[in-house]
Amino acid sequence: MPASHSNPAPDLPIPIFQVSSKVERYLLYDINTVTWLRQKHNILGVLIGTLPQIPQQNVFLGLPLELQPEEARILVENGLGYIVNDLDWHTKELRSKSTAQIEAIKADLHKDGVEVARQLEKSRQNQARLARRKFRSNSSSSSSSDSAIGHNIKTRADESEETLFDNSSPQASTPTTFAPSNSDPKAWTITPATSYPLLSNPPRPKSPSLPEVNPCSYALFKHLHSQGYFITPGIRFGCQFSVYPGDPLRFHSHFLAMSADWDEEFGLLDLVGGGRLGTGVKKGWLIGGVEGKNTEQGALEEIESTGAAATRSNNHEARVRTFCIEWGGM
Amino acid sequence: MTIQTSTPAAAPQPSALTSYINANPSSGTHLQFYHTLALQILHNLQYQHEWTYLRIHTHSPLTKTLLPRPLLSGLPPHRIYVHPDDQVEELKRGGDPLKGEPEREWVLPTHLAEKWSLRRFGEVFDGIGEVPPTEAEEEIIGKEDVEGRWSRRERRGGKRVLLATLGDDSTVLYYIVHDGIVKPRQN
């Protein structure tokens, strides 16, 4: 297992799995990719994997990781990733595999499961042995200081040891006779998060497709991301994005961000409400969008057209302007 | 029962605000509505919040062009904004961040029923510098400020305005709007 603080870079570009051509949701299955993107590229996504039996348990979710469309888009634009149609790729690849290949993979998984079970059993026995040794040394040291009481404790300890450990290991002093180590423990069921051992890496498409995004919110997302901010969906806080100055595990968010078109009108009451909401939780209400010099030739329209044509070369660096609102305190 | 037929009474005395507005007619640069709005906010700042050195700006101190609407500037009785970094420094020194010297502030008068857009905020910020000039300073700016020493003075956090929003019941709400990304205060 790689150390969490120095994850090796995954093979670039990484495949980003679009569920299917009809479902525009972008998933990552590889934990190494997920942690690497978080550490090196401020891409957080949202863990959405839950236990089928307890789906309402949503505090500690696991793989897969769902990327926001903006995150998927920025990865593709920066050449770090490419979009793979998950359904098509799996159907096609699986069909090309022979039964023998699939059986081989299954056998491998079983072998891994056995290994996991064996390791677990081993660590359990180690723990039991350590606990017993500790217990003995405690009782023997107390017996040396006070023989009468110590003797009592020792006999009691021996008795309790027998009742506690009799079933699993009748002769604790001779570890070679441990019953479970001889027999094969029941294999664990391994559920791999990726399909890589079986399927080869998905091919890179010749013409990379860009994830569809709202040009207005994407511009703001890109601007904030380029400044080194970490961005999570803001729906829980009543905004579009919550913006963190560092990893959300270490920092509180600084801003509640909303994007708007340059000429999009909003009521001042929205601004007052947002400012008040942010200040109440020590955050700023941030509103931003692409600056358009005049209405006929807005930079925003440019982004829209280039986004559709998937050409980045003639996309002028549109200037994003942001405004932060805080309560005045008077 | 006799009905008392009173002689038509004289119109009630105009309120302090009305007389103030009547006494300060618009110079005609902006719509009357914007001028009256600015006066009402100015009145509120002066008498409810004890601001001093209040003045109305119709033209940008930077470009001398007409502002989208009249803006106010003035000196609050105490600091209304302390940048979080200054806040931390002051606390480390063992002082009270809000006890510092008050700074002149820009005030943007608005009405709650108005619709705003990013463009309109952008236009307001394009017309102002970081520190609002006093009347005396503006004269200097007009004559001998070649290096922009007065008009381009800087302060931590960059440009900011105090957004004053007037409600229909004469309530005025005050919010600070920064130009750009400025981290929030930890109050």
Automatic annotation (TrEMBL), chain A:
A GO cellular-component term linked to this record: tRNA-intron endonuclease complex
Domain TSEN34 N-terminal: 19-86
GO molecular function: nucleic acid binding; tRNA-intron lyase activity
Enzyme Commission number: 4.6.1.16
Composition skew (Polar residues), residue ranges: 165-184
Residue numbers spanned by region Disordered: 122-186
Active site residues of this protein: Y244, H252, K283
InterPro entries: tRNA_endonuc-like_dom_sf (IPR011856), tRNA_intron_Endo_cat-like_sf (IPR036167), tRNA_intron_Endonuc_cat-like (IPR006677), tRNA_splic (IPR006676), TSEN34 (IPR016690), TSEN34_N (IPR059049)
Pfam families: tRNA_int_endo, TSEN34_N
Transmembrane segments: none
GO BP term, pick one: tRNA-type intron splice site recognition and cleavage
Entry keyword set: Lyase, tRNA processing
Residue spans of biased composition, Low complexity class: 137-147
Domain tRNA intron endonuclease catalytic, residue spans: 217-291
Function summary: Constitutes one of the two catalytic subunit of the tRNA-splicing endonuclease complex, a complex responsible for identification and cleavage of the splice sites in pre-tRNA. It cleaves pre-tRNA at the 5'- and 3'-splice sites to release the intron. The products are an intron and two tRNA half-molecules bearing 2',3'-cyclic phosphate and 5'-OH termini. There are no conserved sequences at the splice sites, but the intron is invariably located at the same site in the gene, placing the splice sites an invariant distance from the constant structural features of the tRNA body.
PANTHER family per UniProt: TRNA-SPLICING ENDONUCLEASE SUBUNIT SEN34, TRNA-SPLICING ENDONUCLEASE SUBUNIT SEN34-RELATED
Annotated NCBIfam families: endA
Family to which this protein belongs: Belongs to the tRNA-intron endonuclease family.
Protein name: tRNA-splicing endonuclease subunit Sen34
Taxonomic path: Eukaryota, Fungi, Dikarya, Ascomycota, Pezizomycotina
Automatic annotation (TrEMBL), chain B:
Annotated keywords: tRNA processing
Superkingdom, taxonomy of origin: Eukaryota
Pfam families assigned: Sen15
A biological process from GO: tRNA-type intron splice site recognition and cleavage
One MF term in the entry's GO annotations: tRNA-intron lyase activity
InterPro entries in UniProt: Sen15_fungi, tRNA-endonuc_su_Sen15, tRNA_endonuc-like_dom_sf, tRNA_intron_Endo_cat-like_sf
Entry keyword Coiled coil: no
PANTHER family hit by this protein: TRNA-SPLICING ENDONUCLEASE SUBUNIT SEN15
Family: Belongs to the SEN15 family.
Protein name in UniProt: tRNA-splicing endonuclease subunit Sen15 domain-containing protein
Native source organism of the sequence: Cladonia borealis
